[in-house]
Design goal:
Structural class: alpha+beta
Strand content: 15-25%
Number of helices: 12
Order of helices and strands: HHHHEEEEEHHHHEHHEEHEEHEE
Number of strands: 12
Radius of gyration: 56 Å
Strand order of the largest sheet: 2-1-5-4-3
CATH class of the largest domain: Alpha Beta
Mean pLDDT: 76
Distance between the termini: 66 Å
CATH architecture of the largest domain: 2-Layer Sandwich
Number of domains: 3
Low-confidence stretches: 433-437
């Protein structure tokens, strides 16, 4: 309802709004003034009535003092009958010093209920005024006067007030309407003229029109600002027209240039397509070559290993110490070559076969991987503490390879004479901050108590064939960490490490918990 009234008020013209606002203000002002006047007068009138009847009660008390002393009921009733002429007194009672009724008067047709005696004073009860007055003789109470009067005089006075207030409202509102109707044009006329000019400008698109005004108040500022705006629009419109003409010429020139560029780009895309097809063909040929070469390289190595092993088994007794040493070096070198070729093939073929990502329980993967190192742990007296790891979307084969190389690396680079201790833990981080674009992340930490490394070599340890120690100290081909990095990056993650020489190392792997549907390596 309130919203409907406000909506109707907003749709009125400025002229009617000004008249309504003026009338509302006048009504509120008159009502407040009349209410205050009536309230003050009513309060004064009540005090006057209370004062008059208090005096009347004292007069009755003075006249009845002798009767009260003698406790004469007939005399008391006779005195009370004298107040019959006062048509506003409803009832009157005289009490003796013990509080017993000595005499009473009640107007006909009015019910009477004996009141509770109260201390002296006046009491307004709804439509009645009650007076209590103690009659004293030489400061000794000899009785009490009770008067009960109606307030018809106050009601009559209020009726008169209503007539006067109605007359004042009619006259005041009439004057307010007349004045507001005459003066509203000072505000509404220039605004209406401004609205008409704005409408003409909008319909005719003629920005040379101007609104006339002869005011120095806020309305004059508004009209002046509107005219200034039209000046700016006119200047801008002329500039836009000129720019449009220039732009058409420029578009024609640019269209010709773009057509030439499009033809050149299409030719370039065709050349790029041809080059891409040739590159894919070369990659396939290289992969086939790597497969054939690995087979051809491993075949003679297997023969060397087989016959070298037979030679060592059957003829070791006829070889001297130096011959046995030469034979062991041949076999060790052959085994290293075979391992190197296998690792290179694994590294090169990591992304050759694309597998869909599936939910992988990393705790299960880590436990299965640890079973491979049972003998190594028993031999070195080492231990691996495995914390809780969640399930992620990944390639299970690659996850086994990742954990295998990281655990192998932690056990390999142990300090001499000290059992290796490895801790593996995982922490799920919500996708906020720098990783917010890839969702929730899993942070895997692999901490060891090994020899560690200088942090300045952090980029070197993840490159193929990059080793920080001599092969005679720690075996390996320098491919494991590079393979880990490639696996992690193809899963949309990253790997890094923190270390201090002699104080162990911590490898940190970041992996997305969930991969996109098109994921896979």
């Amino acid at each position: 309802m309130r919203a409907s009234v406000l909506q109707k008020f907003r749709s009125l013209s400025i002229k009617n709004k000004l008249i309504i606002i003026t009338m509302l203000v006048s009504i509120v002002s008159l009502l407040v003034a009349c209410t205050a006047f009536i309230a003050i007068d009513a309060l004064s009138f009540r005090r006057k009535i209370a004062g008059d009847y208090t005096i009347f009660a004292k007069v009755i008390g003075g006249a009845a003092s002798e009767v009260l002393q003698l406790k004469d009921p007939e005399g008391a009733n006779e005195i009370l009958l004298s107040i019959k002429e006062n048509r506003h007194i409803v009832s009157a009672v005289l009490y003796d010093s013990e509080g017993k009724v000595l005499g009473q008067y009640h107007r006909e047709g009015w019910p009477f209920t004996e009141p509770d005696l109260k201390k002296d004073g006046d009491y307004f009860l709804e439509s009645h005024l009650v007076i209590f007055h103690t009659v004293k003789l030489r400061d000794i109470p000899i009785g009490k006067v009770y008067l009960n009067t109606d307030l018809q005089g106050l009601a009559t006075r209020f009726k008169g007030y209503a007539a006067v207030v109605s007359l004042i409202l009619i006259v005041g509102l009439s004057a307010a309407f007349f004045i507001s109707h005459k003066l509203q044009s000072v505000i509404s006329d220039p605004i209406r003229n401004l609205a008409e000019v704005a409408k003409r400008v909008s319909e005719q698109k003629d920005y040379s029109l101007r609104a006339e005004y002869d005011y120095r108040d806020e309305i004059g500022l508004l009209i002046s600002g509107f005219n200034d705006m039209l000046d700016q629009i006119l200047i801008r419109d002329m500039a836009l027209t000129q720019s449009k003409n220039n732009l058409e010429d420029l578009v024609k020139m640019r269209t010709t240039t773009l057509e030439d560029e499009i033809r050149s780009r299409e030719e370039g895309e065709e050349r790029l397509r041809t080059f891409s097809e040739k590159l894919q063909q070369r990659n396939r040929e290289l992969q086939d070559f790597a497969h054939i070469s690995s087979h051809d390289l491993q075949e003679p190595l297997r023969k060397v290993i087989v016959f070298g092993t037979r030679l060592k088994g059957k003829y070791a007794h006829v070889l001297d110490v130096q011959g046995k040493d030469y034979l062991d070096r041949i076999l060790n070198g052959t085994h290293r070559m075979q391992g190197l070729i296998t690792d290179l093939l694994t590294f090169s073929r990591l992304t050759e076969h694309v597998h869909p990502f599936v939910p992988v329980d990393l705790s299960k993967v880590a436990h299965e991987t640890l079973s491979v190192f049972g003998a190594k742990l028993e031999e070195t007296g080492g231990s691996v503490h495995l914390g809780a790891l969640p399930t992620v979307d990944a390639d299970p084969v690659h996850m086994h390879q990742l954990f295998h190389h990281l655990i192998e690396n932690a056990l390999k680079f142990r300090r001499p004479g000290e059992a290796p201790k490895v801790k593996i833990g995982g922490e799920v981080l919500l996708g906020n901050g720098k990783h917010s674009s890839i969702g929730n992340l899993l942070k895997i930490s692999i901490n060891d108590n090994g020899i560690g490394f200088d942090q300045k070599y952090i980029d070197r340890i993840f490159k193929v064939f990059q080793r920080l120690h001599d092969r005679t100290e720690y075996e390996g081909n320098g491919i494991g960490l590079a393979l880990c990095q490639k696996i992690v990056e193809h899963h949309g993650g990253s790997i890094t490490a923190k270390s201090t020489p002699g104080q162990g190392a911590t490898f940190i792997v970041w992996l997305p918990l969930n991969q996109r549907p098109a994921g896979g390596l």
